[in-house]
Amino acid sequence: MTPRRHLFTVFRHTVLLLWTLVVLFPIGWMVMTSFKDSGDWVSWPARWVPFVDFEPTLLNYRQIFYFGGSTDTGALRREQTEQAYNIWKAAFDSVVIVTVSSVVSLLLGSTLAYAISRFRTGGKNYPYTILTIRMLPPIVVAIPMLIYFASLPEAFAWLVGRRVEFFDTYYGLTLLYIVTTLPYVIWMMLAFIDEVPRELEHAARLMGASRLTTIRKVVFPLVASGMAVTLLFVFILNWSEFLLALTLSQPKVLTLPVLLNKFQSAVEGRLYGPQAAIGTVVTIPVVVLGFLIQRHLVKGFSFGMIRR
Question: The whole model's pTM is what?
């Protein structure tokens, strides 16, 4: 290796290391804050090293999981000034809504992507039109969607004689998540399905398979890795979505990002310890899911790099 090439390698690894530290620093700071007591949240200079600068505590996690419980030294502090929110209801709502909406969006979007890939539905520029629709920021559609959800019960009462509520319901927020993530699924799956040789489908059709059977047993298995990447991407989008859930749900339906915003005290203001604890809990499922399907992620990210 020449000195110039060696110098470039050192420079490249240094830049990557610095960028990794920049990306991981907020996550590390959040995890540390989740183990700090109220006196350590806003202390200056900041307390960095556990067991040296501050004594780690599980009080924040006790508070979000067992609000109103007790520690070894007595009742939870700050109990009288805080709203009684705990994480269990919000976690259940998030898991149900995000899982259902992500899976339905993946299946529906994959089917639509197949139609666009094979039949050029909507014309040559239709995929770009789909992606452009999703480029609108959520704040643009939040209030119109609120008005739309408020008017739907009256429309259903006029059409079928029964009011159907969409505001602050599981199926209302699930339907909204499906609609907002569908363009991403179509766009991503379109790239994967375009790489599947059409000859394989023709062979299956010649053997008597129907179009649906061909999609289910030939196309989808070949793009399974791409579907795993798309599912993880959509899951992360829905799992961390805040604005639409804040506008179109609560108090009956409460997702974890909305709950995170609610931990505040009349005395201490924002409770950064419980918020950091919830943020840590919210991060865990995404990391675990990424590790579970990492084999498919590698295949999905490299899918189509070697052309036929």
Answer: 0.81
